[in-house]
Design goal:
Blueprint (H helix, E strand, L loop, with lengths): L3 E3 L7 E5 L3 E8 L4 H14 L4 E11 L1 H15 L6 E9 L3 H13 L4 E7 L5
Parallel strand pairs: 3-4, 4-5, 5-6
Antiparallel strand pairs: 1-2, 2-3
Helix pairs in contact: 1-2
């Protein structure tokens, strides 16, 4: 299986999906067409057949349509019986209770996954 790398921008997240089962999604996620943007991501995870997968999500902000795509991504992972260890690291900025709560909601929806939360200090620009 080949790696999938999508370079981010001011409105699109950087996504790295490595064949050894490491996934990283980071940045801002405000695509005009979230379904089209996430299509290769969902196809890649659907084809992934490893037993261990680690997903690192560090989104500064994402919109409702991206939330649906994250849910679809987790749904695909959840339906993979061969994936015996699914580890999600959900990053959030200190004081961003909404982002933390989003991660907690996904953890409730997908209890099979092992969620860890990483709070980082507020970035002052």
């Amino acid at each position: 299986m080949e790696n999938l790398i999508l370079e981010g921008s001011d409105t699109l997240p950087t996504i790295e999906m490595l064949s050894e089962g490491k996934v990283k999604i980071e940045g801002r996620a405000l695509p005009e067409d979230a379904v089209r943007f996430f299509k290769p991501v969902l196809q890649w995870i659907d084809q992934f057949s490893g037993s261990l997968i680690s997903v690192d999500i560090n989104l500064e902000y994402y919109n409702t349509s991206v939330s649906k795509q994250i849910h679809d991504f987790f749904n695909i992972l959840n339906r993979k019986p061969e994936a015996t260890s699914i580890n999600i690291t959900w990053h959030y900025e200190e004081g961003d209770d909404e982002m933390l709560e989003s991660g907690e909601i996904y953890a409730e929806l997908f209890p099979r996954f092992s969620f860890a939360y990483n709070r980082y200090e507020e970035v002052v620009e």
